[in-house]
Known about the structure:
Rossmann fold; 5-stranded parallel β-sheet; 437 residues; P-loop_NTPase; alpha/beta; ATP-binding; 4-stranded parallel β-sheet; Helicase, Ruva Protein, domain 3; Sigma_54_int
Amino acid sequence: MATIIGHPGAVEAAELCRALDDAGLSGAGDGYVVALHDPAQGVPLRPEPGRRLLVVTPCTATTPQVWALVRGGASDVISWVGPEAAEAVVRRIQRWKAVDEVVASPAVTDLIVGSSPELRAALTELVELALFGSGPILVIGETGTGKELAARLVHAVGRAAGELVVLDCTTIVPSLSGSELFGHEKGAFTGADRARAGAFAAADGGTLFLDEIGDLPLGLQAELLRVVQEGTYKRVGGDVWARTSFRLVSATNRDLAAEQAAGRFRSDLFHRIASGVVRLPALRERPDDIEPLFRHFLREASCGAEPDLAPAVSALLQARAFPGNLRELRQLAFAVAAHHAGPGPVTPGEIPARYWPAADADVPHGFQPPLEAAVRACLRCGVGLSEMKAMVGDLAVDLALAEHGGNARRAAAALGVTDRAIQLRKQVPRQRQPTDH
Ligand SMILES: Nc1ncnc2c1ncn2[C@@H]1O[C@H](COP(=O)(O)OP(=O)(O)OP(=O)(O)O)[C@@H](O)[C@H]1O
């Protein structure tokens, strides 16, 4: 499972082979490479794509040399301080293997679609924190990048016994003193006609996901800090301390460093909620995921059926920036599924007009204008050329008449035909014009 490279005759290599063998991790071909390497010799090490490179250096390696290896792509560097370093290598590979297996498992791939290296890297960090950590996790990323899904993943992978409780901090009403978090006693405020448990109680033993934590009112930030530090809180209007214990996952699309600088977010709370920070990439940073995600959302929208995509539709998807990220892509897929008549691929005419590129924009290669899409649809339905011409003629007459308030003469002039031609086609009664006698 792990391959050792470099200095095969070295005593370290023999020790490593034995330790990896004993742990059932030795052998070539899998995703882990252990490189025995002396940075003083300056041989560059390049990780192969998709493989993790663990570099074992002599204990004489200097700090700049070690950091140069990390910057060069080594996943980790362990210095050989004696045979016990072999155990550290084994532990490191076992942990990577456990994380990689979860990231590739249906528990993750069924929930989170996408195989771009950018998404895989974020998921790997998230799964490692969920599996091996217990501290609060902060998920950052633009709106619609999947932060709530990330919280669901942490909850599922962390195998918490309790519930996942989701609370959007933008919905907290300041006048209720954080009752959504703490719960309240009967009569605590106008309308509190019975006592109610809040999110802290509901999440006990499970996971609390605080979405948009950057919007948490400043007054409640100190209260949250105490709950995260000490696990104690009082219901609004109550004076009994209650205990709770949950895994906290927070998310924001705000720049919390800027919020702290502006005095809108407490630095002590930030350090408390961000023991692990994972950034989800925007959709435009991982264009390879766009089409698989669009197909996934189309399947979701059409209950399993997955129409093909005309090349121009794929090109359009690739060319779009998607500022609303996956939420915007999902909405587009649902709109397209509602328009799609089928059979055959999704055509550009089925993409709502607001998504079309501007006339003066760079038109993505292969983009089909609506007329071309209409002709293709006719061809697919077996409509011949003369019928197509007749359909276009009728449509042109209808539109010209509508443009000119039903005046056949003016419509005829606009179309460059006699008004008789218009009358014949539409059976429009001949109108008396001021020049008619
Ligand atoms: N990788 C993914 N695979 C499948 N669906 C996804 C993926 N990422 C996000 N989605 C879907 O996209 C939509 C938006 O995701 P989500 O609500 O998790 O984003 P968010 O970052 O929390 O948004 P906001 O910042 O607005 O709260 C949801 O319908 C979600 O199920």
